[in-house]
Amino acid sequence: MSKIKTNWSTFWFLIFIVSTYTTYAVNSTHFDLTKAADYEYYRDYIYYFFGENEITNKEQGLIYFFIVSFILKVSEIDFGFYGVSLFLSNGILIANYFLYLIGLAGLYKLLRLQNINFSSIFFTFVLINFFPPTIYMILNMKPEIIAFSILPWSLFLIFKFIETSNIKFIYLSLFPNLVLLTSKGTIIASVGLIYAYIILKNYKIFNSRRFYKFITLSIFLLSIIFFENYIANSKFILDHENLNPLYQSTASLSFLWNINFDNLLFNPFSNFHSNSFLGIILLDTFGDYFSYHAFHDNSLYIFSRKKLPSVWYISYWTQFISIFLTLIFYYSIFKFIKEKKYSTIFYILPVFGFFPLILQAYGIPSLNFNPSTADAFKSHYYSYLLVISFAFVVISWIQKYKIAKPILFLLIIFSYVNLYGFIKNDVSTYKEALSVRNNYSYTCGLNQDLSFSFLNSNCNNSEVKTCEDSPHLGKLNYAKTITNSYLAYEPYTNKQELSNGNLVVVPVTFEECVNFVNSGYSYKSFINNSLVFPKINIAMYLLSIFSMIYIFFKVN
Q1: Where does residue 268 rank: exposed (0-12), middle (13-18), buried (19+ CB within 10 A)?
Q2: Is 101 helix (H, G, I), strand (E, B) or coil?
Q3: What is the pLDDT of residues 2-46, one digit of tens each?
Q4: Closest CA to 178 of 552, 553, 539, 481
Q5: Which residues have CB under 8 Å from 124's CB, separation 6+?
Q6: Cis peptide bond prior to 491, omega within 30° of 0
Q7: Which among 86, 51, 67, 55 has a CA at the least distance from the CA of 179?
Q8: Do 400 and 490 fall into the same domain?
Q9: N or C end: fewer C-beta atoms under 10 angstroms in the chain?
Q10: Are residues 154 and 41 in the same domain?
């Protein structure tokens, strides 16, 4: 029996490795993160760290954006003017996967603390890889991914302290929490509520002088990080102000309970449910209600995708599946809270994500709500909480019913394949687009080797990656159907400057560009600038990493 369990643990661990690589390869070739929601707002951080801006004029914490900038700086992938967005996209993606894996390591420790076996944990991690909120975290340059990388570690240490009353576990959480609580206003609000709930529920354990000393030290160190962030941002972390006139309203009271039942089936699209908090949750948790990812016009996910045929009243299967799986997810939360299999906090984490967004919708602390879209309720904002709760829901089901494991596996994989549209009508153009975009993936060669000749990339050809211009590198709206505008696309434009020392040239043909590259010319961008180092943030983050390493190997 022990050998069988070990074999299953090994099997699911290997499936987890394969599925993690698969989702990275797919995301790196199908989606340009520089086209993701709010990238144009947050890119000022990249410009700041590469010396293009003196201040960011934003309010977020620095360390996440520094990690992205650092990975871009140390990257050795060739790129030119035409491929710069994909170069940036893949650098952001690598940073996000790095943080994602750190978060999974913390979640592993948290699950092991609940005496959950290895096989169940890695099966759950496989499903998390295909869970839509996970994809949302990974496909955006936003601090929610760093919140996921830290929160499971912090929860693990808090519960170790509650279990043992050993104050060392609280001090081990010091540096990770300094990073977590200086990242973003909504994250601070949600995590603060989580900690308040845990402390109040275990008041006798936390009500001690040694804990208050820890709080005093934390506040002192937090103020130092806030000060460094303020110098770079010229704003404090809670100084978010949206001056867009479209976002100067508040939600109606009925927004919280209103459901547009007919539109859920017949118009399950963005803005048809802008007056329904519940409708947005149903359509966005396992779907893409706001069309920021799977249905984004500039992604290969939406490229020439096949639709499932209508059956009875169901015409929009992707949205129907999202509604169905979301209802099961929240039903499961209520079910397992009642059964008290694990601590209630693990199941109700999404509630702590909802609350700050609801306050914001009613003008607290400032006006930031657009009633025509209600996009303040994107599930991305609390995705890091959804992932942890999803893990405990999956664990609870597979421990209760043996049949749950294959059913959940099939449901999540089918939902992922359908949502992201991997069955295509126009395979040849899709293959061409993938081959071009794969040139800029960090795993280009491996992707090509494992695709069984489906991809035809130029992974090691710096001339192609620097000089090639293609519609597949820009806007992809053309890709829904091949149109005359696509056929008339000019194969090369004279926009790119190449330099060699003080000499600057602008090639007007692909061949001329290749000749210049072979003569020592290269594309110069702001990535060639020196990097700005936020020393205090870096020191705190490195100390948090050392803390995590110690926890992983030394704390049982």
Answers
A1: buried
A2: helix
A3: 565 668 889 999 999 999 999 999 999 999 999 998 899 999 999
A4: 539
A5: 111, 391, 394, 395, 398
A6: no
A7: 67
A8: no
A9: N
A10: yes
